[in-house]
Amino acid sequence: MPALPTPLLDSSGLPAGPADIRLIVTDMDGTLLDDAQRIPAGLWPMLAELRRRGVLFSPASGRQYATLHRQFAEVAEGMVFIAENGTYVVRDGVELSADPLDRSVAAGVARTVRRLVADGADVGAVVCGKRAAYVERTDEAFLAEVRKYYVEHRIVEDVTAVEDDVIKVALFDFGSAEHTTAPALAEFAATHQVVVSGAHWVDVMNRTANKGTALRGLQRALGITPAQTMVFGDYLNDLEMLDAAEWSFAMAGAHPEVIRRARHLAPSNNDDGVLRTVARVLGLRYDGADGGVRA
Q: DSSP secondary structure string, 220-274?
């Protein structure tokens, strides 16, 4: 059984002085964002300090690139966005990597969702392309969930006929994604990744596609080692990403498997856990009350 991660407030396992960190990668929902899906106010001065030090900050999320770019619009220059759970990586509008999903697989997943709906399941499919996300359901409850993660989305009659480079299919289950929708996709799990990315979300992607694969490719391109990389996550779609960094942190309250896999434990996302941890490892002072960051 692997050892439990070192709690952040326990100094064992953390450096006596500032660590040589060159890349910080963080999940969004349940990690950087609080439970109301707000970016902590202290992030903006933190990003300015990181840029001054030459440290690259990269959001890594199941959200689409357009959504992430909008959230970081004022500081997006030079930032690397690991979008769609690692299937699409973009910097300054330039695609760094992509892992398209075979259209026949996407169509098969969509047909499975239609069968689930016909049997009474409250689930909807989001076919994710490079340009936009595509849905067939038109009810407001479903669209409200889609808007949170896919600002560029379109309602179409048939998601299997969209003209776009499909990179994944996301399914939203109003019940339990882990216990209901994911098992229904067992036929795809043999050849593709079926990843529970949240309490209500399941993603179907290529076998090789995940945040960890995207991160390792980025590390190679930039000449940055795992020892120079910090990663933060809270859910199952973050596991491979945690493996790609020596400074891996599970958030307090993370999925039990994430806590087992990470090397350290960070404070809660509702307590600015990412920012407080970055400040400690880099030898900064973070004042949560006013969002100030000082060396």
A: HHHT--GGGEEEEE-SGGGHHHHHT-SEEEEETT--HHHHHHSSEEEPPGGGTHH
The 10s digit of each residue's pLDDT in 244-260 is: 999 999 999 999 999 99
| Contacts of residue 2, Cβ cutoff 8 Å, sequence gap at least 6 | 260, 261
Shared domain check, 150 and 89: no
Q: Based on the fold, state whether residues 236 and 283 are members of the same structural domain.
A: yes
pLDDT in tens, 159-207: 999 999 999 999 999 999 999 899 999 999 999 999 888 889 999 999 9
Q: Are 203 and 162 in contact (CB under 8 A)?
A: no
* Assigned token pair, 49: 């300090």
- Tokens representing 149? 């993660």
* In a shared domain, residues 24 and 58: yes
Q: Are 2 and 260 in contact (CB under 8 A)?
A: yes
Q: pTM of the prediction? A: 0.89
Least Cα distance to 134 among 142, 126, 124 occurs for 126
Domain that holds residue 30: 16-98+210-294
Query: Are 132 and 170 in the same domain?
Result: yes
